[in-house]
Prior knowledge:
alpha/beta; six-stranded mixed beta sheet
Amino acid sequence: MKIAISAPSKNPADPVDSRFGRCSFFAVVDADQEKWEFIPNPGASSGGGAGIQAAQELVKRGVRAVITGRVGPNAAAVLQAAGIKLYTAGGKSVQEAYRQFLNNELAPLTGANAMPHAGIRGR
């Protein structure tokens, strides 16, 4: 199973990025093989539709769960339509959030927990 975690850098010790659509990277972890890959977020510098672009990239990569801080309604709709589960992990490191996911300790999201365009300029 592949899990994606919103990240500000390629360092798993850094905190989970609170912004899904505007995070710089996604840590994509193949939990079956414990293989980590940091991929650039195609929506990070997008003029609009950042969350949708990010969500489509993760769907294309076969991700089954996303760990983030906040996710907007459009991105949440794309992810949920693809059967991808959403979890929140604010204040934790990327690595800690991954471990907590494996131990079923993260709070699941049933939908968006941010307003549209909330990630623009840190809003």
